[in-house]
Amino acid sequence: MVRVSGYQLFATTVLFQLGTTVIFGFASPAGRDAWIAMLLSAFIGMFMILGYIALMNMMPGLSLVEWFPKQFGPWLGIPIAWFYPLLFIYDAGRGISDLKELVPLTLLPGTPTWVILGSMMLVIMYFLSSGVEVIFRFAGLLFPIIFFLFVAEILLLLGSRNVHFDNLQPLLGEGWGRVWKTVWPFGILQTFGETIEFAMLWSFLRKPGQLAGINIIAVLVTGVTIAVFDMLAIMVLGEGVFQRNIYPLLVLLRQLSISDFLDNLDALGVMYFMTTIFLKISLHLMTAVLAIQKLTSAKSLRLPILIVTVTTLWIGSNMARNVTDHIFVGTRILPYNLWIPLFIVIPAILLMVAWIRKKAGTAL
Amino acid sequence: MSEYLWPWQSHVFILHPWAISIMFIVLSLLLSMISWFKKK
Amino acid sequence: MQVKPVILSMMFFLILPLLTGCWSKVEVNDVAIVTAVGLDKTDKGKIQLSLELAVPRLLGVTNQSGGEKLEAKAGWILSAEGETILEAYRYIQQKVQRKIVFYHSKVIVIGEKLARSGVLPVLDFFERYKQSQIKSHILFAKGKAVDILEYNPVFEKLSSEIMREEAKSKKNVSVRLLQFMDMLVSPGNTPMAARVQLIPAQTDKNSGESDPGISKISSLSVRGAAVFHKDQLIGWLNETETRGAMWLKNRMKDAVTTAEVPVEKGGGRISAQVHTASTKYHTLAGTKGITITVDPYAEVSIFENTSKLDMSSPKDLEYVRTLVTEDVKARIELVCREAQLGYKKDILGFGHIIYRQHPKQWNKSYAKEWEKLFPEVPINITPHITITQVGLTNKSIELE
């Protein structure tokens, strides 16, 4: 039986939630108040995750895909359950697509796409085959390293003379409007709604009682980290550049120059981005594979892993013609069409049904 | 890269946002049949 | 599954070449390194792009005095015209065998004509292009940018090096493209940047020991500032006015202020060096209209005293403090007057201060009316100067 420690779950959750925001920044439409939008999103997102945990506690030992058949019966529950692995695969494809845009731009301009993505998927496939426990151990190992890099980056930036606190002012000068627009629905759903995937993995936790506590701390850490980076980006780059740039945190790193000699550190940023996105894609796929396993009563994970990996590579490669389309879909359309129903509406209905059932059950 | 039209592709998604939802529903029903079959 | 050692070692050797990272390698020999970019507007309205390329072969050669027959300069200037920067860049690339890279470009010089017609259209390239140069210093040339790039310096090998050193120095405004763009875009703010020009060598001490055989007619100076209205250059500030502007923009770092002691008190001059300075603003924007109060804070040290005042006497020191305060006030007022009465435009970005402290009112009413309101806005300057050090002596030497 796979047993995961509290720290490992924490590390995995945080790195997952950091995901792509370490490069794209968060809530840039909110301008200089983006960091406020982040903190708000974290706060609200936390409640959403607690909702998922409530579901977990109501059906102990069951994972996400098993919830739906249990509450809605096999004829309705199973098709609904299948939505989730499909969504996770699509989300993984989006991650691959992100890589497809970013790596040629910054690290490897000449390398053909299929080499970059293919190698990535091979590693992921190997990673998944090693089992769930390996993923958690990997995250547990990498977490201190990534955070050390973050702290180093923050200190270097603060030490350079480029940080202007004034850029954060006037606080909320443009009002709350644009802050709320980024918080709902995108802000909450992107980082925190996706955490519903973890409901496939929470049953592995050694001490289930810690679940709520760990997630709360994880959300706090994620929220503060991203807010701090947003703040730094705004303080150094100014609101205009922050909003206009597609990869603001990358540009932020470029501003660092250690004694005029060590320059252009954005390559470093791309590397830790690759780590977080590698983990995020792997988690998307691991949870999809586990879901498929549960739904098809498969004995070994080999076949699902293979199918899922190849599918992801395929859809990720031809998903986006260009960055503009990709980001437009990701921020304007995707949240409404897929995420709201699957991360909020259906779980909410589930929660109500389960709760009513429980009440009816105890009454009998 | 292929020029096929699939619902997950960004340009298709923008024009027909509901396409991927339909695809999901169809796929999930198909795949559910595997689950139902296995449960018997 | 037992993996045979043969397969393992085969895989190992297959992977090895992949790890050397040779795929998209860029060798130093294959690139032409741009150290400075110059932009001008031609008479036909096109953009003239000038690139100063570093010739590494000649950079290591020591400058032997008298051996000026070496005509080859370490910096090679290439120019081309185009409708856009990218177009001109392509033309220049055609003239060079190596791939032009912008990674080490530290300076962008914009010619006066282009600046006067509006700088916004040319800025996009530096932000958007893959080898983004928003960290470069931006300088505005009095005259043509290409002339500045062609300048053949004495101490350094490349004119871009001189410009970079000067631009970084704390004695003048130094604005990077990032900051420039930020000022351009922020509500109420106006950009400002350093001015670069060629001046006669005789009046400038930078020419060092010049060999009589050479005629160095000019020297590069990065002093003064360029001021704008929206994105168009409208004028220049000289050195004194720039000092005042630096106080206002909170960029004062290193400066010497000299105050004259009135004859009644003994005459002479006192020079103080500024250590740390920061400028705060207080604004009132209400029914009675807008008032701006500028509070520059600074710590200074007295390093030269040719008056009869005694630096060890608190009374005298206090008097010196008021003199320095008056001096700073006068400088800032000078440039404010220049803005309000001379240009009649907010070239210093006061609007942004109002926006920051009264965002809602700015958005509602002031933003549209700022051009009309600005010349009448009362600006009060109240410097807070602290003298922290007086150097090594107290009284200045004097004859008995």
TrEMBL record, chain A:
Membrane topology: Multi-pass membrane protein
InterPro entries: Spore_GerAB
Chief location bin: membrane
Keywords, ordered alphabetically: Germination, Membrane, Transmembrane, Transmembrane helix, Transport
Domain of life assignment: Bacteria
Cellular compartments annotated: Membrane
Biological processes, Gene Ontology terms: spore germination
Transmembrane segments: 6-27, 34-55, 75-93, 105-128, 134-158, 211-237, 270-291, 303-321, 333-356
Official protein name in the record: Endospore germination permease
Gene source species: Paenibacillus agri
Organism classification: Bacteria, Bacillati, Bacillota, Bacilli, Bacillales
Automatic annotation (TrEMBL), chain C:
Organism: Paenibacillus agri
GO cellular component, one term: membrane
Family matches, as Gene3D superfamilies: Nutrient germinant receptor protein C, domain 3
InterPro entries: GerAC_N, Spore_GerAC-like, Spore_GerAC-like_C, Spore_GerAC_C_sf
Record-annotated Spore germination protein N-terminal domain positions: 25-196
PANTHER family: SPORE GERMINATION PROTEIN B3
Keywords carried by this UniProt record: Germination, Lipoprotein, Membrane, Palmitate, Signal
Membrane topology summary: Lipid-anchor
Subcellular location: Membrane
UniProt GO BP: spore germination
Primary residence: membrane
Family statement drawn from the similarity comment of this UniProt entry: Belongs to the GerABKC lipoprotein family.
Protein name (database record): Ger(X)C family spore germination protein
TM spans (from-to): none
Annotated ranges, domain Spore germination GerAC-like C-terminal: 224-391
